[in-house]
Model the fold of this input.
Amino acid sequence: MALEIPTDPTLPPFVDQARRLAFGDSELLRHLADAAGGLAVNLVLAGLIFAATLWAANWLSRVVGRAIARAHRRGPPDATLQSFIGSLVRYAVVIIGLTAVLSQLGVKATSVIAVLGAASLAIGLALQGALANVAAGVMLLVLRPYRVGDVVEIDGKTGLVRGLDLFATRLSDGENLIVFVPNAKAFGAVIVNLSAPTTRRAQLDFTIDYGDDVDGALALLLACAAAEPRVAAKPAPWAKLTAFGDKGLVVSLRAWIAPKDFDDTRFDLMKACKERLEGAGFSFPYPHQVTVAPRPFQAPQSKTNGAGSASPGLPSPPPTKAGSSTGR
Done:
């Protein structure tokens, strides 16, 4: 059994405790064992509290989402509100759980609050971007320029809105890539909601030759629009001569289409109009390229008069014949 070693007042406390621990002081070893046991229990409890916090955060987030869905029994659930409130509840529960973990480890909540209060200015400057995203997210939730499921264009990025949380808006673009737009960026940029209107206008421009029948081309464009079932009857399709181009006359067709069918209908209508115009004998001018072949450079020949001196601008005399009097 280890003997109890007396303290040495001439040594510093840390050195004295190390000396007693090296010689196997029973009292000091007992205190260390109690402290290690208490720390182990606190670490286990803190881990359990942290795990329970994560589980409770996800569970409460789902419960809030279902509660919001039940509140909209007469219509479809508001996915935007579910996403935002769910993330808000999740972060709040995580913050409360972390405070409980620190309290279990011996850090008093009042001390944490005092430290946060003293460093509030530095924290505010460091997290001003995050706080701006939270404030912008609240404004987006209140103003509702878009909802989850809408196709929007934000700051040049077009995609389907997948979610709106405290800090960012998640978009899924045409290539199925996930784009995260910070809420502050989305709230400060121009937002174009492509799904909000009931119909969208598509304009198709065709260039025909100046000698073609304009009225016949306009009638064919209207017939193509009338034959397409996805084109709305009201407003009625519109076809007019819109410009005198460098290569021909520009005839335009305007048709109104539902947002969900906009791209496919516009492409199919463009193909149908081209085939109808070509079948009716209309020609589509296209740019031509002219190739100019270079000629080799030839130096001008000097012209001389009868005396043998150069006389520019006068034709040279014809050659003399043998036996004639000229040139003798």
Summary: Strands lie at 151-154, 157-164, 168-172, 178-182, 191-193, 200-208, 238-244, 249-257.
